[in-house]
Fold:
Amino acid sequence: MRLMLSLLVLLVAWLPSAADEKATAGLSSLESRWHGCVRDVYDRERSSQSKAASQLSALDACKEHEDAYVAAILEAQAAEEKAARREGRTLTARAKAWAASVLGYVVDPVSSWLDAVTH
Structure:
């Protein structure tokens, strides 16, 4: 029973949270808006300018979208780093702690039972 509970807790810890999914959706939305803006401006100006000039003009025209996208990426990275610092333990350390707790529930009772039987 405790093993199943431990596995359930481990599974829940590994699943992405709703906030992570929302942040990912927000980033992809900002990225698609920026890319759409660049494509639209580039398509409009491609016939009147050289390719390089059209590309630079499209990037300049969509600077607001790019800035919003980059700011959101940096904010998401800062939030991930903060969560990692708050957690303080690596995945390996958490796995070792979990294995130690499982061993405590299995090995200790069995070894004490074997000691009682042999003595």
About this structure: Residues 89-119 form one domain. Residues 7-12, 14-18 have pLDDT under 50 and may be disordered. The two ends are 30 Å apart (CA to CA). The first helix runs from residue 2 to 14.
